[in-house]
Amino acid sequence: TAQRLRYSDAEKLAVFEGEVVASRGTQTARGDRAECRFDSANRIDRTILDGHVALEDRATGRRGSGARAVDEPKAGTTNLAGNPAVAQDAHGNVVKGAVLTFRKESGSVEVKAGEGGRIESIYQTRGN
Question: Cα(first)–Cα(last) distance of the chain, in Å?
């Protein structure tokens, strides 16, 4: 959903602007603007979400925030970029970096630092 939508069948492109909310299953993504590209069979090929991006997966309890998200459903990946991009799991563990790559099949997150930057990770421990 969004406040405005422009769609071009010739370009296979939908542009959403203003309070964008994208949902797939238990996942919800929010941002200021989104572009959705479609393949020749009109299936989503790639979605790019920009501006104050917030991701949430109710099934896993995982959340993320950043400036830009690129979701590629066929590849099973979502890249979240920011300064920093942040991901937090249901246990309160946090990772921060320039680019986070969420891999749907394995449930893993890869973290990359920006040029000359660093990554940060915080893990919650549970004692007996």
Answer: 46
pTM of the model: 0.89
DSSP string, the chain: --SEEEEETTTTEEEEEEEEEEEETTEEEEEEEEEEEE-TTS-EEEEEEEEEEEEEETTTTEEEEEEEEEEETTTTEEEEEEEEEEEE-TT--EEEEEEEEEETTTTEEEEEPPTT---EEE------
HSE, CB side, 13 Å, CA atoms: give it for residue 83.
Answer: 3
Closest by Cα among 24, 27, 89, 85 to 55: 27
The Cα 9–Cα 124 span in angstroms is: 48
pLDDT digit of tens for each residue in the chain (128 aa)? Answer: 999 999 999 999 999 999 999 998 899 999 999 999 999 999 999 999 999 999 999 998 999 999 999 999 999 999 999 999 999 999 999 999 999 999 988 888 899 998 888 898 888 887 65
Pairing of strands 27-38, 4-8: unpaired
